[in-house]
């Protein structure tokens, strides 16, 4: 081990600062494109766009549409965050009361659980610091989602305007904007967590176990906000999408982003609040939880006992190196090998994943070799301590990193219309919507196989080498290239919005073709969801291990009735949760469809384009429905661990967490990939890029209508239920870990004699 304490104290905040500065630089470069101002040529006359439209009118229309999308997004998030502020206040009280009650609300220091000869902070102090960490995690997650939305709404019209100059210029703006979100989120999350640890350490001193247990509240706060962001944003975006598609495309036979469609603004707002803000909060939650899980497990290792500060901060060093690696990777796409034509877009995005993974592998080796002791031990509850070498940790982190890459490419294979699976789904549309649904469901089920094997191999290898600490750092490995993954993920909705603005602003067919080309590799969101679900599986298992350790459970025996009851109920929870979110989207979409039909029916001149639709009415329907409908699924996830742990005890809760993890991962992958495949089957037919695709089209054909129905059914699967499930399994695990002291001391009321 070579690295010292000073290196950690400098390297971690410096990496975060570099990430923030890089994000601000990218934002500055994006701001060079002006919206709402016309260009003037050298001779003093107003420029005319390449399609003959006056430049001033195009700019004005883009500015107007951008303002409407931004206003709708901000209104939704502001209202949702008001609800979340109330929730945070109430749940903070619950955390404090439950944890403080473990020690009888005492202010006196108490013997440490791990060493009775030492004294640890009072129950009141531990409860206070856990509550503060929860609030900080929730605020950082909220900020992550809000910044993502602001960046996306700032960049969408700018991407549209740059598309007039060429696809390369438009790609650069969209990708730089995605990078702003990726680096701000990764750097802010790391910096706030590191500073929180340093401040808490002033009180906890050398009590690393108590310190890192308090820090787990940070992960709980991040995931709590992510849950409501994903569910609320998902309901919003899919209600608008379904309404716009069913009435606009199928019934009225008008293009997707036609300005005559009353739901078109709500649809574009949904991309920002669901796919951007919700996704940002989700992946921040994964980062916070995986880091917290690794920190908690490391605190009961030999370098925790030895007070080895550098080794204890190993998870933070991995994330810090990830920011620098992602920075170099981003420069490859924006400056070194920038996109010049349409055919270069997809290879450039794939190259980002490969380059970041290869570079990160080298960084992981260096940090493992120089940042960890040559040999150390990991304590395993109920078993002998595990002797681990530093190169073992390299393979643990690396297994998670490469498993993430495999999941990304498998997800792309099953959701991209460049490959056989989606083309088969598109071909099934010849015989109607029913066969399309059957083929899509089969594809989703099949797409689970390889990702689960990849996760299983990573788990087995990591656990064999370093027990639960290995699994925790494997999850960190999968998320180590978070900034690049987020940049790619955010790029998709920004480009999608840009296409919608081009359509609504009446730009030429050539410009719309360029914006369509940006979204043609429409697997960016699917790959992001694949990473999120894969990392959720590893994170949840690591948190599960930390919970079992903290609750003092020697082993989880599924043959015992307490554990088995929890297991089977836990496996049911993802279905219950999915039913609630799917029905919520259905109810909201029903109201949206009726409103869009009403406007087409009652507003004179709407179809002729002489009258504007009432966009705000549709925005209000989506906002009201999503805020109302996000509460029951959120309550299910947040209350279940509290009820089970309090009434049935730590063993039953352990079974519940295991069942939810095993079941939830399968459903999440299947739902996300099924929906993604149906979406791209529809786009395959619409693009008509091959002879096979042309034989199924054009737009408005029976095969295309069947594809639109499949896409509509898949919308809530891929953008609401599927992505939210990974938060369900993570959130229940981290909540159980935070409340483990209470459950261990006071849980199992119904089983007491």
UniProtKB/TrEMBL annotation:
Its EC number is 7.1.3.1. This is H(+)-exporting diphosphatase. The keyword Transferase does not apply. It is found in: Endomembrane system. It is an enzyme of class 7 (translocase). It is a multi-pass membrane protein. Keywords: Ion transport, Magnesium, Membrane, Translocase, Transmembrane, Transmembrane helix, Transport. One of its GO terms (cellular component) is membrane. It comes from the Eukaryota. One of its GO terms (molecular function) is diphosphate hydrolysis-driven proton transmembrane transporter activity. The chain crosses the membrane at residues 6-29, 83-107, 127-149, 170-203, 309-332, 353-372, 392-415, 436-461, 467-488, 530-549, 564-582, 636-669. It holds the Pfam family H_PPase.
